[in-house]
Structures are given as structure tokens and as C-alpha cells.
Amino acid sequence: MSSSFPLNSPTIPANVRTLHSRDELPNLLIDLGLTGVGVEVGTYRGDYAAHLLAYWPGTLHCVDPWLSQPDWVDMLSTDQPTQDANYDATRQALAPYGDRAVLHRATSDYAAHQLAPLAPFDFVYIDARHDAPHPLEDIERWAPLIRPSGLLCGHDYLLDGTYATGVYAVKSAVDGWMAAHGSQSIGNRLRSPRTLSRPG
Fold first, then answer.
1. In terms of C-beta density within 10 A (0-12 exposed, 13-18 middle, 19 or more buried), how is residue 129 classed?
2. Where are the domains of the chain?
3. What is the pLDDT of residue 198?
4. Global pTM value
């Protein structure tokens, strides 16, 4: 299940393309001049963070508690030794990028408070817990930290429900937040990457 979402604000050109893969996000960020500092919430083993850093020139703050969470029903919910191994794998994957990769072993809530003094960010990419109420909480805590011309992006924009991979409530969170803030999506198809941005 890989689908993503980019929201737009009036400052984003109307002709911005819909992404067909999240792998295209670095190019979109560069095209929009968003090449400073970004945040990834939910880093797992660092694979996507490494992709961003390989094709985008900025500094990326990677947020993940790498912590066993027994109440989390998801294929990535594992015991603590596995989480520690994931953290070590992330450090190894991102080591080639030096100080452009900044790891924060912390919850989304704690990291948002910790990183707030560094705001505004060019973008935040959310791929953390997918079960309610976490997707909406993540959007609400990170959106205020993004510059008006920046992007709030994410992954797994699927119909809410229980899948073999876990419990998902991303779509209702994204759609509800967009409606409440008068935002519009650049792309609007399930299972295709879309980008969200803070309303102007």
C-alpha cells in the first residue's frame, strides 16, 4: 500500500503537477524553491529519508520514537529489540549525508515542540502511525510549523479501514483537515501521491 498526498495554498502555482510516485517529491520541492529544511515524521529504517537526501539538497530532520507500542496494530509495530535495530539501520542509511540528516528519537508531539524554534520548515512529510487519532494529530501539530509556501506531505492516503498491514484512518484525517482549513489538493486520486500545504 503506497499512496501519498501533496495540499496547496494560493502561493503554489496552479499548474503544479500531480506526483505519480513519492519518489518525485524531491524534484517538486526543488522546482518550488523549497530547498532549506524539512521534517520527516515516521522514519522507520531511513529508506525514504535517504531517497529525499539523495535528490534534494536541504537538511532533513527525521522524527521517530523507535519505540515498541503494544497498542499499535500495524505490521511495523514490533518489539523493542527490533525497534532498536531499525534505529541502527537508519543511522547507517543516513550516515553518508552527514549533518544534513538530523535524527530525533522522539514522539511526534515531543519533536514538534523541540523543533518549533527552527520553524518555519519548507515541508513536513508524515508517515507515522496511521490509526486514529494519530494522523489528524500529526497534521494539526506540524502544519503550523510550515512556511505559507511550503508543503505538508504524507503517505498511505487509503480508504479508512483495517488492512492486512494495519488500521488506517489517514484519509478521513486529511479530508477533514482540508475541509476545515479551506485547502485544496493538487492531486485527488486514492493510491497516488498528493502533496498538502499549509493554507495561506
1. buried
2. 4-196
3. 39
4. 0.85
